[in-house]
């Protein structure tokens, strides 16, 4: 059984985006593209991955990481690690 629900993962991700990366909370939706909609760059994406790793104690592989484009992608990838 996963340690965190998808909702908990999404909420942690939202906290990281708003508090650490200063993304407008209103822009954070599952379908939001990290790069186009949230105006993040690859350094921000790495930062998110590191913070999610600390949150879950699990690490995304570089291959999985490269596939991530949206907020939902991160939530699903992290949730998948926990199953």
Radius of gyration: 12 Å
Main sheet makeup: none
Morphology call: globular
Specify the CATH architecture.
Orthogonal Bundle
CA-CA gap between termini: 6 Å
Assign the CATH class: Mainly Alpha
What is the count of β-strands? Answer: 0
Instruction: Output mean pLDDT.
Output: 93
Count of helical regions: 4
CATH superfamily: ACP-like
- Could you please say which CATH topology applies here? Non-ribosomal Peptide Synthetase Peptidyl Carrier Protein, Chain A
Uncertain segments are none
- Share of helical residues: 55-70%
Number of domains: 1
List SSEs in N-to-C order.
Answer: HHHH
| Percent strand | under 5%
Oligomeric state as shown: single chain
Class based on secondary structure composition and strand pairing: mainly alpha
């Amino acid at each position: 059984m996963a340690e965190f629900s998808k909702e908990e993962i999404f909420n942690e991700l939202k906290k990281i985006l708003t508090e650490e990366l200063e993304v407008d909370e209103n822009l954070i939706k599952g379908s939001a593209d990290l790069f186009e909609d949230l105006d993040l760059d690859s350094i921000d994406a790495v930062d998110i991955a590191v913070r999610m790793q600390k949150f879950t104690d699990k690490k995304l592989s570089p291959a999985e990481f490269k596939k991530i484009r949206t907020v939902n992608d991160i939530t699903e990838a992290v949730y998948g690690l926990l199953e």
